[in-house]
Task: structure prediction
Amino acid sequence: MRISELAEVTGSTVTTLKFYLRRGLLQPGHSVTRTQAEYGAEHVERVRLVRALSEVGGLDLAAVGRILEAIGAPDVGRLDVMATAQHALSGERRHESAGEGDDAPRGDERTRAWIAARKWQVDLRDATVDRLSEAWGACDDAGIGLDEGRLDAYADAAERIARIDVASVPPEPAGAVRQVVLGTVLVEPVLAALRLLAQQHMAITGGADPTK
Amino acid sequence: MRISELAEVTGSTVTTLKFYLRRGLLQPGHSVTRTQAEYGAEHVERVRLVRALSEVGGLDLAAVGRILEAIGAPDVGRLDVMATAQHALSGERRHESAGEGDDAPRGDERTRAWIAARKWQVDLRDATVDRLSEAWGACDDAGIGLDEGRLDAYADAAERIARIDVASVPPEPAGAVRQVVLGTVLVEPVLAALRLLAQQHMAITGGADPTK
Result:
């Protein structure tokens, strides 16, 4: 199909698709003449994926590009699936485990102490530790009352979620990174909506109605 | 303090603060002369809150404005705290429960059937039902493999989170909406970071390593 048809099928505009092509988010079509290219089912899938990641997942296009790169990497089967996926998401290059002594641990003291007490085996040089530290600090500034105990309770729930995430990764390494990356990004809005609905349910059923 | 000092204390710029003033996100200072106003601790707190909601919570300024409105509403104690909070977040006006027969249920058939099977007592006319429906559909389009069973497993975790959320709301209605709204927005990035770290932990400890 031509680019105008690709736009129609995917509900985009030709302008948007040309922008994706320039940014390398959409693979080029097969040249038919010097000014015309032919697009197929793989292009439709790619456009839908870019839009899902940016519109549903809320990622900027730089992050979308990194994720597409991680998904398309040929030697992906040899890498730790979770680590590859997470680094694509966090925007950090995956650091080498040896020979880089200046990789300082991330996050503030309190966050690192909490992780240690939790006995979570995570890489303290990962950008996610910073994200947790910053998000926790913002809760403090707003007076949310998020102490270690409440964080532990949330972490129990996060472990349940992560167990489902990890169990749902396909056994073949070929599709595993794709699954993990997309699952992490696209399930996030599902979880956010479930949380809001569950709050409603809890408030309506009155089991823990805070107003009573 | 002057507006330049307020900018310095909060790590903003005068341009940003003037923009907040024009948008009504920051309450005006106390006029000293015709061209000069004095700002206090309440302004510092407000600027920090706006920035936390927009930068950490990832909300656009229209949503920040609605949230500030909900937090500041004087008769908030008489309303259902959760509903007020959620409607501020979803950008929908809180519908009246009587006399509006044309409020159609939201979301697709599958989502409503799942909610019914789950026995969640939620308002099917709420925009959150649409959000769940769309996010679930995006997972399908990307081939994530999110079926009813896996959604149920995530919902179990969401119920745990919601129970903590609801239990942490202060008993006085005065601060309750503030707590719920800010908690919902600002805890979201905490939960996202916890999920990533828990994934790492699960993958490293090998209990459910998908590559093995």
About this structure: Residues 76 and 174 of chain B are 7 Å apart (CA to CA). The radius of gyration of chain B is 21 Å. The first helix of chain B runs from residue 3 to 10.
